[in-house]
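Predict structure. Chain length: 341.
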Amino acid sequence: MFIINTVQFKDNINENIFKITSSKDNNLTIKIGRLAIIEYANKKSDIKTFLIGVGEEFNIRKNVTYFIKKLVSPTSFSLSNNYVMKIEKSNNLKKLFLDVDDYYFGYEDRYNKIYEIGADLWETGKPNESLLKVYQNYPNIFKGKVIDLGCGEGRDTIFLAQKNIDIVGIDISHSAIDKAKEKIQECDGEKSIFHTGNVLYLNNFKNETFDLAMNMGCLHMINKNEDRLSHIKNVNRVLKFGAYFLVDHCKSEWGNGFHTIENYDQVKEKLKNFQEKNYIDRTIVVNEQKVKIPLKVIPYLEKSGDELINEITSCGFEVVEAYDNDTESFGNSSLILFKKI
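Prediction complete.
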């Protein structure tokens, strides 16, 4: 057992699970890689699981037991106060970590890859069509504090920031967030509005903070029911009473019409079978030239408008307006404005 403030995981301890405790509230920050964290609050039956990526902070509460496991190499983190950590060899814990799926970090892997080969952006730099429609029809909801959930490279966040709207953008991909910071600085904007974080938990945001939460094409990339429920409940938590939740979610034919997919009919079967780790060519722009590169098909979930409404209204929301949508960003989708009740 040892007391330290920085940990660098090495390859020879890939499979180890560590028990960590602290006598003071402690701020854990991921420097490299990603961690799975299991919290044992008061009793073993009361556990919570978190996935934490680069740049994200996690509160280690005093006298609470946590178990951590690295998910990729290399991984390192630091803490603001001393803590006690030791190797844990429980078979039951190993079984719990087997259920941890970091599929949602696939976007970090994708952004990182396209930037490495010279692409400036994955998406266009323009705000998506869905946002522009709602901004025109419901301008009054863009008041107070706004959060853009799964903001990616920040195109919607930057658009609204340029309208003098008090907005923050959050995304699990630190590479995309770095790009968003770069792009807003080109517009003489403030890069501090962008944050790396996991939208499933929204750890760094207090209850009843925001007047509007936007999920523009992020929720349909969360395909596990328990993860979706965690996200929607935490959105409800950080929204004020009477605040709005704007969602654009694919209904069917995922990938059809996307500007990065030029041959949908040829690849649609691979798109449907993402469990098989399929790869398809995606079109990106490198040095003003279109380039096709093979990228892994990332999990997603299609839902009808009625299914989406039932899912979100069951978590304390009501429908304000619903649109049938078809855009190059999200294809055949449901664009729905909800209100917290």
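Summary: Residues 225-238 form the longest helix (14 residues).
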